[in-house]
Amino acid sequence: MKILKRYKWFLISLFVLMILSFFSKSILTKTIDTASSNILQMLSVLPPVMILLGLVDVWVPREQLMKYMGNNSGIIGILLAILIGSVAAGPMYAAFPFTAVLIKKGAKFSNIIIFMNAWCLTKISTLLFEISALGYKFTLVRLLIDIPGVLIMSYLVNMFMSKDSINELYNKYN
């Protein structure tokens, strides 16, 4: 019964898809093609990410990560979170396993949110494409707006989440 509850939305979506496929076979075909493509993309991205995470988990001691990204890290933790998120490669779902390692190692919650936002907004590979497509002025203005937004967002999320929720999250990974 727990499995049904866990996959409830997937099963409902599958049921709706089956019903829709009676009216239009192209919906079923497109859905299967899209799902297959996404699964193949994930399988090409996640193994290298998992290998790197395993290395980070083994090579970076918890005490060292807490020193630089923990509760008393200050501006160094913020800059390191932005830097790690900015040099990252891959889609957003590749950030989630890394986020779990940061939680496990005791990084400050707001630094984790900064890292995740930086992964989305300040990735160097994306910035290079954006500069070539939209120009450096646009990219610079966007960054000048986004970076303070990332910081504000991280502290708002940290402020609005209850301490119990944050502690539960950290306890789940330790």
Automatic annotation (TrEMBL):
A Pfam cross-reference name: ArsP_1
Transmembrane feature ranges: 39-60, 72-92, 112-131, 143-161
Keyword Transmembrane helix carried by entry: yes
Keyword terms of this UniProt record: Cell membrane, Membrane, Transmembrane, Transmembrane helix
Cellular location(s): Cell membrane
Membrane topology term: Multi-pass membrane protein
InterPro entries the UniProt entry points to: DUF318
Top-rank taxon, per record: Bacteria
Protein family (similarity comment): Belongs to the UPF0718 family.
Protein name: Permease
